[in-house]
Each structure stands twice: as structure tokens, then as C-alpha cells.
Amino acid sequence: MPGSDMIEMAIEAMERAYAPYSRFRVGAVLRGANGRLYAGCNVENAAYPQGICAEVAAIAAMVADGERRIVEVAVMGEGETLITPCGGCRQHLREFSAETVPVHLCDPAGVRRTVTMGQLLPFAFGPDNLRPDHDDGG
Ligand code: THU
Predict the structure, then answer these.
(1) DSSP states of 54-94 as a string?
(2) Distance, CA 134 to ligand 1 centroid (Å)?
């Protein structure tokens, strides 16, 4: 189970989402291998395809801070239907996550379900395909 710090941060991020077009607010929090938490929210745009997802915003914050390894993910959304990362976000997350990384699918009441990165994106094409010996060194 994720710590309450992760859940609270994801709720805060979701509440700050800029989603005037879809009205669907999403928050994402990543725990880096360094133990720090990185939050992101979706940021939509009047030119619709330019909007970015919460997961991508959180990844950008993590990488800008110098961290490149994700050890835990929380995605926060509202509504009846379980929130899951979109296909593009699964690929973005996979770039920095092993297939064993837990992904908590949450609503403001807490975790509804936890899956692994490998379950979300089986047989992923990832960094190992191009850089078998990579060490996260850039
Ligand atoms: N959204 C995310 O931020 N993450 C996801 O994984 C699913 C979708 C956002 C994108 C858009 O701003 C809104 O949710 C509706 O698709």
C-alpha cells in the first residue's frame, strides 16, 4: 500500500489540474529511487492535442530533479470507472520503470486497485531494446 503522503499529494495535484475542456482531472505521483515524490496533473490546451497527461507532467518533474528511476506510481481520478493510465502514458512510465513497479489506481477515497507496470504494458518495447547495457547514466 502506498503511504498517505503519496495519496494526499496525488489528490492535491488532481485538484490543481487544468482540465476546462474534458472536465476530467487527473493527478499522478511517482516515487523515485531516491525516495522523493514527484507530482503532476493534466494540463489541457485550447488546441486539444497539445494537452499533456498527469503522468507525463510528473515524469518531467522527476527527470528535471535528476532522478530517472521510478519505484512506485499512484494515479488519481474521480468517477465510477477505475482510472488507468492511457496507452501513451504506459509507454512513458515504462521508460523509467521496471515491469515489477506497482501502479496504484486511486480515487480520493484511496487505492482501488494495484497493478504492476508489466500488467499494464506487457511485452513492452523499452530502453532495453535499444540499450541492453544501459545504466540510467544518460
Ligand atoms: N488523462 C491523464 O492525465 N492521464 C491519463 O492516463 C488518462 C487521461 C487526462 C488527459 C485529458 O486531459 C483528460 O484526462 C481526459 O482524457
Answers:
(1) HHHHHHHHHHHTT---EEEEEEEE-SSSPP---HHHHHHHH
(2) 30
In the sheet that holds 26-32, the strands lie side by side as: 37-41, 26-32, 70-77, 102-107, 110-116
Residue with cell 522527476: 62
Q: Can you give the pTM of this predicted structure? A: 0.95
Which residue has its alpha carbon closest to ligand 1 atom 3?
Answer: 53
- Best residue among 15, 22, 25, 26 to mutate for probing ligand 1, ranked by most atoms within 8 Å of CB: 26
Q: Cell numbers 530502453 label which residue?
A: 127
Tens-digit pLDDT profile for residues 64-118: 999 999 999 999 999 999 999 999 999 999 999 999 999 999 999 999 999 999 9
Radius of gyration, CA atoms only, the chain: 14
How many degrees, rounded to 5, is the angle at CA 13 between CA 5 and CA 75? 75
Return the percentage of the chain with pLDDT > 90, whole number: 91
How do residues 48-57 score in pLDDT, each as one tens digit? 999 999 999 9
What is the rounded distance in angstroms from the CA atom of residue 105 to the CA atom of residue 81?
11
